[in-house]
Amino acid sequence: MTSARDVVVTGLGATTPLGGDVPSTWEAALAGKSGARTMDNDWAERYEIPVNFAATIKVKPEEVLKRPELKRMDPSAQYAVIAAREAWRDAGEPEVDGERLGSVVSSGIGGVWTLLDGWDTLRERGARRLLPMTVPMLMPNSPTAFVSLDLGARAGAHALVSACASGAEAIGYGVEMIRTGRADVVVAGGTEATIHPMPIAAFAASRTLSLRNDDPEGASRPYDVDRDGFVIGEGAAVVVLESAEYAAARGARVYAKVSGVGLSSDAYHITSPDPDGTGQVAAMRAAMEDARVTAADVVHVNAHATSTKVGDLTETASIRRLFGSDADHVQLSATKSMTGHLLGGAGAIETMFTVKAVAERLAPPTINVANPDPELQVPLVRDEPAKLPGGDIAAINNSFGFGGHNVALLIQNA
Amino acid sequence: MANTEQEILTGLAEIVAEETGLDTADVALEKSFTDDLDIDSLSMMTIVTHAEDKFGVRIPDEEVKNLATVGDAVSYIKTAQD
């Protein structure tokens, strides 16, 4: 059942390590494919970086965008625009007044390629060789700005930044824009393009990356006892959100509704999650209260689960603490096992997966779990997709970020 | 190394095409950067930066506003090289 105040998802778009669009990404995810591969460069030897693989984007923007577009946008904005155009087409290109259309597309880190290329140019060749587009390309609001330009979105273009929770926070903010009456339609999501030696070396310095160089496809293994860190990924995902009323009036196809947004912050440590999971529980509880559902209604959780020792188990302990015995009927999926960690894009691609899971009643698998961690407290979907029940169901997408940001989005069938 | 006017026009047309998506054939001597080719100031400065690189000349910012047409730019570059 949908009511007039509900916010529904009518379009999906993505460009990811698994595919250049949503259908190919979803198909690869259901088939349990990994998007991680050895990188075609010499960064590891040249800079003594301990990691030589990543979940790089499957379809290069050069194959999709025009040359002037490629030159005017940082890869982070290129991915966002590719995903937004697909989502917009998928939604049937709503003929909405630009004043009633919003854009909320976040990046966790921003235009690092542009920033660092600019620094190289400055050092090697001087200030006059810097291109005038350098600033508009490196700024972290560049992806949302280019999406708003592309679609003529004038109700507001926003870019909320909360590290690896950014994409989910963007979608949550898009929901709020519609609920508060600022927009009828919002294009919302996340993007990241940080497969550059500096961020990879920096993440390696924080000791959070998997070092499984001899087995890239097996490296991202959330909840496996031998997990040793995350696999850096890149790409973008965007959803088209609409008020249920607006979508119904134009006869739009509806995938699902986003009926709960839960936000909290740990205020515990700059990178480590609070081991008590207080903030994570608060975010999930807030999302459930917002949607007026109980733990008994939640049948699927797309976990943040990055494949780090501490993070994965904190989240499942939080779910168990909040859900109690209801956690026994939750189908938990950790899709980063296949996509790698898209950082600012993660919350968006995982919302896309959660929406698809609810719409198709199919939870995507978690791969590479040879030996489940004995402390895992929630049933995990392994290797093969799992059927979700019929009738009214709810699912949660969790996203957490460096800085202690917690975002839970609650998705229900339409 | 000095280029002929034709070489400069061809090279400049490639830069403009790359920046704007226009066909190189549209970048003719009599065309105005703003009125005919719809090039904004940010794109113009990008084109200038690439042109300086390609032709080994310096085009000061205060000169850029005097380069109304493609022909003006070709002449300026030619003179600067000679």
From TrEMBL, chain A:
Gene3D superfamilies annotated for this entry? 3.40.47.10
The UniProt entry, under InterPro entries, shows: 3-oxoacyl-ACP_synth-2, Beta-ketoacyl_synthase, Ketoacyl_synth_C, Ketoacyl_synth_N, PKS_Beta-ketoAc_synthase_dom, Thiolase-like
Can you give the residue ranges of the Ketosynthase family 3 (KS3) domain? 4-413
**Which SUPFAM superfamilies does the record cross-reference, listed alphabetically?**
Thiolase-like
**According to the UniProt entry, what is the EC number of this protein?**
2.3.1.179
Q: Does the keyword Acyltransferase apply?
A: yes
Q: Which keywords accompany this UniProt record? A: Acyltransferase, Fatty acid biosynthesis, Fatty acid metabolism, Lipid biosynthesis, Lipid metabolism, Transferase
Catalytic activity as recorded in UniProt: a fatty acyl-[ACP] + malonyl-[ACP] + H(+) = a 3-oxoacyl-[ACP] + holo-[ACP] + CO2; (9Z)-hexadecenoyl-[ACP] + malonyl-[ACP] + H(+) = 3-oxo-(11Z)-octadecenoyl-[ACP] + holo-[ACP] + CO2
Origin, by domain of life? Bacteria
Pathway named in the protein's UniProt entry:
Lipid metabolism; fatty acid biosynthesis
Pfam short name (any one) = Ketoacyl-synt_C
PROSITE patterns of this UniProt entry? KS3_2
Summarizing the function annotation, the protein's role is: Involved in the type II fatty acid elongation cycle. Catalyzes the elongation of a wide range of acyl-ACP by the addition of two carbons from malonyl-ACP to an acyl acceptor. Can efficiently catalyze the conversion of palmitoleoyl-ACP (cis-hexadec-9-enoyl-ACP) to cis-vaccenoyl-ACP (cis-octadec-11-enoyl-ACP), an essential step in the thermal regulation of fatty acid composition.
Record-stated family: Belongs to the thiolase-like superfamily. Beta-ketoacyl-ACP synthases family.
Protein name in UniProt? 3-oxoacyl-[acyl-carrier-protein] synthase 2
Tell me what organism the protein belongs to: Myceligenerans pegani
UniProtKB/TrEMBL annotation, chain B:
Summarize what the UniProt record says about post-translational modification.
Answer: 4'-phosphopantetheine is transferred from CoA to a specific serine of apo-ACP by AcpS. This modification is essential for activity because fatty acids are bound in thioester linkage to the sulfhydryl of the prosthetic group.
Q: Name one GO molecular function term.
A: acyl binding
Top-level taxon of the source organism: Bacteria
Q: Where is the signal peptide?
A: none
Tell me yes or no: is Lipid metabolism among this UniProt entry's keywords. yes
Keywords, sorted A to Z: Cytoplasm, Fatty acid biosynthesis, Fatty acid metabolism, Lipid biosynthesis, Lipid metabolism, Phosphopantetheine, Phosphoprotein
Q: Where in the cell is it found?
A: Cytoplasm
**All copies of domain Carrier, residue ranges:** 3-81
Query: SUPFAM superfamilies, per this entry?
Result: ACP-like (SSF47336)
Name the pathway.
Lipid metabolism; fatty acid biosynthesis
Q: Which Pfam families match?
A: PP-binding
Sorted alphabetically, the Gene Ontology BP terms of this entry are: lipid A biosynthetic process
Q: Which GO cellular component terms are attached?
A: cytosol; membrane
Q: Residues where O-(pantetheine 4'-phosphoryl)serine occurs?
A: S41
PANTHER family found in the cross-reference section: ACYL CARRIER PROTEIN, CARRIER DOMAIN-CONTAINING PROTEIN
Query: Which family does this protein fall into?
Result: Belongs to the acyl carrier protein (ACP) family.
Looking up HAMAP family in the UniProt record yields: Acyl_carrier
State the name under which the record lists this protein. Acyl carrier protein
Origin organism is: Myceligenerans xiligouense
Gene name of the encoded protein: acpP
